[in-house]
Amino acid sequence: MPAFTLALALGADGVELDARRTADDVVVVLHDPSTRRLGVLANASFDQLRAVRPEVPTLDEALDACAGALVNVELKNLPGEPGYDADDRIADLVAARLAARDGADDVLVSSFNLEVLDRYHAVDPARPTGLLTLRGFDPRDALQLAAERGHQALHPDVRGFSRVAAAVVERAHELALGVHVWTVNDATRIRRLAAVGVDALITDVPDAARQALGR
Length: 215
What we know:
The chain is α/β, with parallel strands linked by helices. About 35% of the residues lie in helices and about 20% in strands. It is built from 9 helices and 10 strands. The chain has an 8-stranded mixed beta sheet. A hairpin with a 5-residue loop joins strand 1 and strand 2 (about 25-30). Helix 4 runs parallel beside helix 5 and helix 8 (about 185-195) packs across helix 9 (about 205-210).
């Protein structure tokens, strides 16, 4: 939570966070599937989590802290990781939480798992969704896949993206998709990607990124 507050104070347009579920289906913000003194998150209740990691916020608490800013909610549920849920319930749970907040939040939903992203799009088709990709997944192929599945953005790993950035951005805009690149901390690379028209840069250093862009 302090990191979200600091990022916005440093001039970020929004924040990116990771959503996971507890055993009793509370959506919390945590990157890893397991946590110290608790074990696998999906096997523990929210009360158990809060007892040992009181600093871990619920999704609602994080959204409240980021009111007025864009929030990129990444759905975490990958095959092979501890607590993987083949039913992709995290998609339904996040959609339900956002619906309960009655449109109060500016949220984009993303995931590396295309199945969970497709599930989210099916239950909340009005919400923008973005496909996250790792280095090694050709951004041109990923872009076409995202478009075919009805998603509104591609979130490519910056590693391996720069060499095809101009072509990908041009094609994405022809398809009416956004390109949001992660994680871009180098000032020279920030300027180069901005120059070819990427729609967003995900960075660890929003103040340095703004300075690099002359803002």
